[in-house]
Specification:
- This protein is an alpha/beta fold.
- Helices cover about 35% and strands about 25% of the residues.
- The chain contains 8 helices and 10 strands.
- A 6-stranded mixed sheet has the order 6-7-8-3-9-10, with helices on both faces. A 4-stranded antiparallel sheet has the order 2-1-4-5, with helices on one face.
- Helix 3 runs parallel beside helix 5 and helix 5 runs parallel beside helix 6.
- The two termini are about 30 Å apart.
- It binds adenosine-5'-diphosphate (2 copies).
- This is ABC transporter ATP-binding protein.
């Protein structure tokens, strides 16, 4: 069961002298219920690959799929629906709305989509995320790790087919980072959540089931059951 897939994926930015080839014919399948990390040097195409798989950016050539849906063929409104209903995002900068409480932030994507959370599932997510009585606090009243856990809960509560996380621990100390990664890891183990994470941190990658290494726009290696030492 494949949750996301790229087939001969090319991405070219600009033209002429300024042309940059960010992806050079990437083929990859991401299995449902797995936690995949994407690693590689700065500029190797990690963000581009993730954005094109998530429907945030369009490939120049080739195809990208979420489940059976070929997102390269979707209209703008089709893409908006895909991003709203089928994928979740976690960013390095948390991207919480400062005027809303943690709980309101968690529920925001659902309310925008006009959906109500399944009460049992909502309770499970809220319990697992471990914010306790801080659910009524605004982001500015929370630590970085707590803010990122709010962002994780916001992504998880809509039960997306894939969660895309772009350097989710990039702004956190190692202890807060471990809490966020443990939460992501457990959401794979306990709920079968599919996660794709871009990271340059070997310790973060060790939480994944599989690491894909990019260099210069292509996949150059991969590793199953990675360890922090192994991906260094
Ligand atoms: P990574 O996430 O591995 O750092 P990126 O996917 O961000 O790599 O970038 C891959 C290459 O594409 C880099 O050379 C980068 O400068 C270039 N690039 C990324 N986004 C753009 C853009 N919007 N316009 C032009 N070049 C871009
Ligand atoms: P719990 O007590 O719920 O298992 P932890 O945060 O200790 O919470 O761990 C969450 C998940 O992350 C567990 O599945 C654990 O196996 C995994 N995990 C914990 N530490 C690491 C690590 N350093 N590298 C990889 N996976 C880890």
């Amino acid at each position: 069961n494949i949750a996301a897939r790229a087939v001969d994926a090319w991405k070219v930015y600009g033209s002429g002298e300024a042309q940059v080839i960010a992806l050079r014919g990437v083929d990859v399948e991401l299995e449902a219920g797995h936690f995949t990390a994407i690693m590689g040097p700065s500029g190797s195409g990690k963000s581009t690959l993730m954005h094109c798989l998530a429907g945030l950016d369009a490939l120049t050539r080739g195809q990208a799929f979420i489940g059976e849906t070929q997102i390269t063929g979707l209209s703008d409104s089709g893409l908006t629906k895909l991003r709203r209903d089928r994928v979740g995002f976690i960013f390095q900068q948390f991207n919480l709305l400062p005027t809303l409480t943690a709980e309101e932030n968690i529920l925001l994507p659902l309310s925008i989509a006009g959906r109500k959370p399944d009460p049992d599932w909502y309770k499970t997510v809220i319990t697992t995320v471990g914010l306790g009585d801080r659910l009524g606090h605004r982001p500015s009243q929370l630590s970085g790790g707590q803010q990122q856990r709010v962002a994780c809960a916001r992504a998880l509560v809509a039960k997306p087919e894939v969660i895309f996380a772009d350097e989710p621990t990039g702004n956190l100390d190692s202890r807060s980072g471990a809490e966020v990664l443990g939460f992501l890891r457990n959401s794979v183990r306990d709920f079968g959540q599919t996660i794709v994470m871009v990271t340059h941190d070997p310790n973060a990658a060790s939480y994944a089931d599989r690491v894909i290494f990019l260099a210069d726009g292509g996949i150059v290696d991969e590793m199953l059951e990675p360890t922090a030492e192994g991906v260094l």
